[in-house]
Amino acid sequence: xxxxxxxxxxxxxxxxxxxxxxxxxxxxxxxxxxxxxxxxxxxxxxxxxxxxxxxxxxxxxxxxxxxxxxxxxxxxxxxxxxxxxxxxxxxxxxxxxxxxxxxxxxxxxxxxxxxxxxxx
Length: 120
Description:
By secondary structure, this protein is an all-alpha fold.
């Protein structure tokens, strides 16, 4: 998220910053009305990427260290008599949860307050 936010700040068009300076807006107003709207789409993209990585790490950690969760269900089902039906069910549930999280992030991107680069 930090990389995406930094990239978003660095790609703000200078003409918008100069226009705000010409109108004599305060730093707070500049931040609130120019920088945040310009950076918000990049922040949300960073959140979406971070959420995907976090979900992957949670499931992997469950496979290694815990005695509960979907990752543990998959490993335990494979080791306990080759219950491949539970393995596949766990994989499908993990995929559905990932798809749900992705869909929620896409809905967040579609909010009216998240304007893609000064679009109206």
